[in-house]
Amino acid sequence: MTRFLWAVAGCLGLLLGCESDANDGSGGSSGAGGGGNTAGVGGTGGTAGVGGVGGTAGVGGDGPRGYDEVQACGGEDHCLPSFAQLVENSIRNVSVLERTRCVLESLKERREGRYAHEADETNSCCSTNSGHAFQVLADGTVYYARRDYGGGMSPIDDYDRQSEPMRCEVADASYFDTCLEAIDRFAPEQRPGIEPPDDVWRCVYEDPRLDSLPWLKNCEPIALSCESEDARSSGGD
Predict the structure, then answer these.
(1) Is residue 166 within 8 Å of 222, Cβ to Cβ?
(2) CB-hemisphere CA count at 13 Å for 95?
């Protein structure tokens, strides 16, 4: 409990990264965990992504804006944005586990709609965030993009970049089943001061410096169309 209170106090004092109840109003349709879509200032063009996922935009530059594009496709928001946070590289926080369960189950079933997840890493010096936007179309096609942003003690440390929009496959059903079972085991125990165990944490948090989530596989950059492939095919007949 002492570690948890210390972490919360530290985050509030620095105004960095900690999720608040404001997410209920800001995340449902505009992005994950209140991250928003506002780009930084200045900056340069895109740079290659890590792990073959594709280019990312510079700080407010002219690179890809895939996160904004995927969000703009609309779609019903069946789940509030999922959120996971690592504080000072040691303290784990998954504030509202029901949101994460909803997103994971919906992706497993490829339920048509728009979903969001955010991973936050907060330290005394800075905050590093990755927002993930998912769009599942009527035919089960999954579009995805990510937004990486953060800041530090100096404006020079601030950045805001996005990936290209991508078409992806969801992970195997067995992966989601394992995660959902782990969440269900932990849910009755979750309360302030109780950190999620490893089997839950592996399912909800990814290092913000990586360019992929284990929820998806075989992602390829695309020119985004918000219509399903079936709809485009029938329209051309």
Answers:
(1) yes
(2) 22
